[in-house]
Design brief:
Length: 674
């Protein structure tokens, strides 16, 4: 496992040196560069995997490592002078102190997520089993392509996250450990990514530090759930870091495009949300600076173009599957677009074309009548009122995509953080942090005349982002609903920035440094029991699983993985429940080999196995060279199998010379196929 961890850091940091190849004058300290290289390298892996797969080059860990070494070597050759680290230990700077404090927050976060991930010996919920299966397929077959959709999380579902996990799994022997550890580690780094983004975006390291503490403590920031959404959310601050860096060097557009493309091929909903937030960022910058800022447009365009290397071949290959069952990925885009009224689409297309013509005619200079000092905020608030009326007045939903865990949220969900939270997407803020957020919004509104000044661009952008995220969260009350429960994690980012702004604004008039420090300590002391303790409890609690479900049956599956009596990756099959459950216990029935083993939307064998004869069961198992079979109370809990039918089949197997009982608990039985 240590070699696998070492490989992770070498791979990611090596690929991250692409920044140094592109950006010659990257102004950042040693730790910032190291962390941002690491994050960028993580983002590059899915995109590189897509490109290699399109070129029919195996997704092999050695090939990825070769790219990493080549990138690092090229950076060392061309940027040797710039790469030499400069240390000054004679004096501890404010920046170094803040980085050390963020390091402490990262360490606590990493412990919380990693310890919490291994607090129970199974994969939580159900989705992680599907990710484990498809990651295992990539690790074994060195491609994500497959003739048919064998699982919900196989192609045409977005494959970036699975590529990353599959390549890493080639360096260790446990998909269970691989998924848990690296998922938790990567989302832990989001604390570092956010700090350096906030520092660059706000140009104020005090705001950056307090904002980072808010994100560190807020419950609605990501949990350790094994899901590509959380992988994307870890990359979100990195995407914003690259976007904000365009001000210092226009070549950051290439890195912004790569990270954006990575988001689009990792998880569709968050990728689409990245795109919407990018558009908001661009339009506000256009509004504030009255410049076209073509580099942002180019970053978005090239990011989408890169992602099409995955979407177009996948759509063409699996169009029938997408039409019948959706993909959990590509179909979300069509579903979203399909919900938009045609007239609105025509208006958007017309405005986009008009804007392109404007760009060409004026060569980057906007000629809107914005010279008057008071006109911008008036335009903004007029547009805001119009948009809110459009959201409130229609009786029917214009866009109605609810998601699996959405409900009607209220203010109590924001102000009262609870220990019991959602596994897939935690919610809640806590009354101290939420009060500071509200104070920040009030300060912004009271200073509305300064909101759209160039020096306050980050404030106005964050304000609009925050309002947007709140509108989506409260989508059940409005005419537009776009999976509200998943917007909580985005809100955590924007709320944290406003909380940092709020605290610094409150402290600014205070001249006494001791009083300032005392107030900060008081805020920290109040935030821990009202926000962080609930977050910590939730992320270190025992999360349930939805596959085996019966405790005595779970004991057998855990024994199967941990006893050493059955070799890892043995071909074990379940007669009643979805065989992806076995990938959470390091077994591998290679269900992708035939539709009879597992087929998304089809009729695989396990769905009706007990309705067939024992001889038919045996012939099926031998046909696919399956060495073990497991069944028991999990069949009743998960698949509603008749208990008498189940008991009869178990007894038949015990008495049959074709099966040998290897291990059983009170409720579950493991047989060897003779």
């Amino acid at each position: 496992m240590l070699l696998s961890i070492l490989y992770f850091f070498v791979l990611a940091i090596g690929l991250g040196f692409l920044i140094d190849l592109i950006i010659k004058d990257w102004k950042a300290d040693f730790l910032e560069k190291l962390v941002i290289r690491l994050g960028t390298g993580i983002a590059i892996v899915p995109v590189l995997g897509i490109v290699l797969n399109v070129l029919h080059i195996p997704l092999d860990w050695k090939i990825f490592l070769a790219f990493s070494i080549i990138t690092f070597s090229a950076a060392l050759y061309f940027r040797k002078r710039e790469l030499l680290p400069k240390f000054n230990f004679s004096k501890l700077t404010k920046s170094q102190t803040y980085s050390f404090l963020v390091l402490i927050m990262f360490a606590i976060t990493a412990y919380m997520y990693i310890h919490g991930s291994f607090a129970y010996p199974w994969l939580e919920d159900g989705d992680p089993y599907g990710y484990a299966l498809t990651s295992k397929y990539i690790a074994e077959e060195k491609t994500y392509s497959h003739p048919y959709k064998f699982d919900h999380y196989s192609e045409p579902y977005t494959q970036g996250y699975q590529i990353f996990m599959g390549v890493l799994h080639q360096t260790n022997n446990s998909i269970y450990w691989n998924m848990k550890f690296f998922n938790a580690l990567i989302i832990s780094f989001s604390i570092f990514f956010f700090f350096y983004f906030a520092k660059r975006f706000t140009k104020n390291q005090d705001i950056a530090l307090i904002s980072t503490f808010a994100l560190f403590a807020v419950p609605c920031w990501v949990g350790h759930f094994i899901f590509s959404l959380n992988f994307n959310m870890a990359l979100f601050p990195l995407f914003l870091y690259a976007l904000a860096s365009l001000e210092s060097n226009k070549k950051w557009k290439f890195l912004t495009a790569i990270i954006f493309a990575s988001a689009l091929v990792n998880h569709t909903y968050t990728g689409v949300t990245f795109a919407i937030l990018l558009i908001i960022y661009y339009l506000n910058k256009l509004f504030v600076e009255e410049k076209i800022n073509k580099e942002i447009l180019q970053a978005g365009f090239f990011g989408v173009l890169l992602s099409l290397l995955f979407y177009i071949p996948s759509y063409l290959k699996h169009s029938d599957s997408i039409a019948k069952r959706g993909s959990g990925g590509i179909n979300q885009i069509f579903l979203f677009v399909g919900k938009i009224p045609p007239l609105l689409i025509y208006i958007i297309i017309f405005l986009a074309l008009a804007f392109l013509v404007l760009c060409y005619i004026k060569k980057g200079k906007l000629f809107l009548p914005l010279k008057r000092k008071d006109i911008k905020y008036k335009i903004f608030f007029a547009l805001f009122i119009i948009i809110m009326l459009l959201l409130i007045i229609p009786s029917n939903k214009i866009i109605d995509i609810k998601g699996t865990a959405t409900r009607d949220y209220n203010l109590g969900d924001f102000f009262i953080a609870k220990k019991g939270n959602m596994t897939n997407n935690p919610i809640g803020v806590g009354w101290v942090l939420m009060t500071l957020f509200c104070i920040g919004i009030l300060i912004i509104l009271l200073n509305y005349k300064k909101l759209f000044k160039k020096e306050n661009f980050w404030v106005s952008t964050t304000f609009i982002w925050a309002i947007f995220s709140l509108v989506i969260i409260f989508g059940t009350y409005f005419s537009i609903m776009f999976i509200p429960f998943r917007m909580w994690t985005f809100f955590a980012v924007f709320a944290s920035l406003i909380i940092g702004f709020s605290v610094i604004t409150i402290l600014k008039p205070i001249k006494n440094n001791l009083l300032k420090i005392s107030l900060l300590i008081l805020i920290v002391i109040l935030v821990i029991p009202t926000s962080f303790s609930q977050k910590y409890w939730h992320n270190t609690a025992q999360w349930p699983e939805h596959m085996v479900m019966v405790p005595e049956s779970q004991e057998l599956y855990i024994w199967l993985r941990d006893s050493g009596r059955v070799p890892k990756d043995s071909k074990v099959y379940t007669l009643c429940i979805h065989p992806w459950a076995l990938y959470g216990y390091d077994m591998n029935p290679e269900v992708w080999n035939d539709k009879e083993l597992a087929h998304y939307g089809g009729n695989p064998y396990y769905g009706s196995s007990l309705n067939k004869t024992l001889e038919d069961n045996y012939n099926f198992l031998k046909r696919y060279n399956l060495d073990y079979v497991v069944l028991g109370a999990s069949c009743i809990a998960k698949s509603n199998v008749d208990i008498n039918q189940l008991n009869k089949r178990i007894q038949e197997m015990i008495n049959s010379p074709n099966f040998s009982l290897i291990k059983n608990t009170e409720s579950e039985f493991l047989f060897r196929v003779i």
